[in-house]
Amino acid sequence: MKVTKEIEKLEHSAAKLTVTIAKKDVADFYNETLKKYVKQVQIPGFRKGHVPVNVLERKFGDSIKQEAAAELIDKSLNEIFSDEKETENRPLPYAQPSMDKMPEFDVNKDFTYTVTYDVFPSVKVDEKSLSSITIKEPQCTITDKDVEEELKAIQERNAVVIDKKDDEAAEKDNIVTLNIVELGDDGAEIADTKRDGYTFTIGGAGNVYHIDDDLIGMKKNETKEITKKYKKDDADKELAGKTKKYRVTLTQIKVRNLPALDDDLAQDVNEKFNTLADLKADIKRNLNTSLERRLNDIKSNDLLSQLVEKNPFEIPASMLQAELDGRWRMMAQQFQTTPEDLERMILASGQKKEDMLKEWTGDSEKMLKSRIIVDTLLRERNISVTPEEVEAQYTKIAEGNGMSVEDVKKHYADARSKEYLIDDTKEQKLYKELFAQVKVTKGDKVTLADLYKQQ
Question: Cβ distance 288 to 142 under 8 Å?
């Protein structure tokens, strides 16, 4: 089939493809379509497979031409986009070519049609722009306090929770369960505000009513009316500046018995630890590994933000929409529901899906542009990894996580996991090259906790 094509690049990473098929091929294809119909169609007065062509055309001519045109378009597009030379001009998988109107199909003329579609964005990173980039690396070291904080968290995770005696009062850090209902000005219960079996830790972050101090001193099965005046700047807009009256009944009071910080605790955490010192050393090693990863993430994000700013290009609408749809589906999975039910849940809370997607748009677009720049640089610089470099990565992961190299290899044994490791190693090589070309200066000194608060 003789096909000629003309591709015009449009704004927003779109393309317009004009295809012309020679009239001989058009006629041949139409005749083949007619033959197919002759074999299949049944018309009263004629045996199957013996319907005259002129009768067939008179009765079904328009439909046959429409089918021939559609199949001819599909066939020619498949032929064009399967050409390896047209890789950068192929449509995105989630943005099928569209046509304003179906062109006239005349077996005595060339058949010409035009489609538009989104293509993968292309960006040419200005290498000179790298020398003008400055990255500030936060200065952070792991302290004894950081190790102690992590050790405290381990101690709490291994705590035993037991009921307090009935005559013992609730105290800070106790786990309480209560029944609560809001009261009106007349002291009557307000409909739909009753909540039974509400559990949280006094002084923790889980109490949405902010009545922790009012519960201290109460005993099991005790009932109390509490009047709470909320600050105007309360984080909960439904409560900010209001005064609420509640009736609460404590139904359970529990206390955490923390294990002693000793060798026994270390051995309970993992049999590979013999002493508490072994556990602390492992904590410090893991914190240092995490710190290194976090600092690299901060530097990489800063670098990509500046590269996106210095090398502007457009993301096609279909690509952005696919990313937003993907984030929505992921959010639904996190809530263990369907995307449709999630939308109903969001609507019931007073929000709209459209508003949330709009809020996500800026970050999603930036993420896509960053990913495209990374992929472009990997390709242009021909970044690859050798088997020896993969082995070195196994060793690095093992040392950073207190694991054996054999266990690390088992973790990355399947093809998908190993491919992820190889891709990650490629990116690390790329960032190492880029960091050598930009200016990296010392930033402010920060604690580990503050470092993780940074976006």
Answer: yes
**Residue 155 to residue 151: CA distance in whole angstroms:** 6
DSSP secondary structure, 256-289, as one string? EEPPPSSHHHHHHH-TT--SHHHHHHHHHHHHHH
- How many Å separate Cα 150 from the centre of its chain? 28
Q: In the structure encoding, which two tokens stand for residue 410, read together?
A: 């088992």
Give the Cα separation of 55 and 33 in Å (integer).
Answer: 15
DSSP at 413: -
24 contacts 3 by C-beta, under 8 angstroms: no
Answer yes or no: are the C-beta atoms of 116 and 97 closer than 8 Å: yes
Q: Which two tokens stand for residue 429?
A: 């090589």
- Kindly report, residue by residue over 262-303, the tens digit of the pLDDT: 999 999 999 999 999 999 999 999 999 999 999 999 999 999
Distance of CA 250 to the CA centre of its chain: 41
* CB-based contact 142:445 (threshold 8 Å): no
If one counts every other C-beta atom within 10 angstroms of the C-beta of residue 77, the result is: 20
Q: Which two tokens stand for residue 300?
A: 């990489």
Per-residue pLDDT tens digits for 145-177: 999 999 999 998 999 999 999 999 999 999 999
d(C-alpha 221, C-alpha 163), whole Å: 13
Neighbour order of strands in the sheet with 3-10: 3-10, 14-21, 111-118
CB-CB contact of 68 with 113 (8 Å): no
The 10s digit of each residue's pLDDT in 62-103 is 888 888 889 999 999 988 888 777 777 888 888 788 988 888
Handedness of CA 239, 245, 251, 252 (dihedral sign): positive
Closest-CA residue to 121 (of 381, 434, 383, 373): 373
Token pair listed for 226: 């509490």
253 forms bridges with which residues in the sheet?
176
**Strand (E) or helix (H) holding 138:** strand 134-139
Counting every residue, how long is the chain?
Answer: 455
- Check: pTM over 0.85? Answer yes or no: no
Report the SS3 class of residue 199: strand
List of residues 6+ apart from 61 with CB closer than 8 A: none
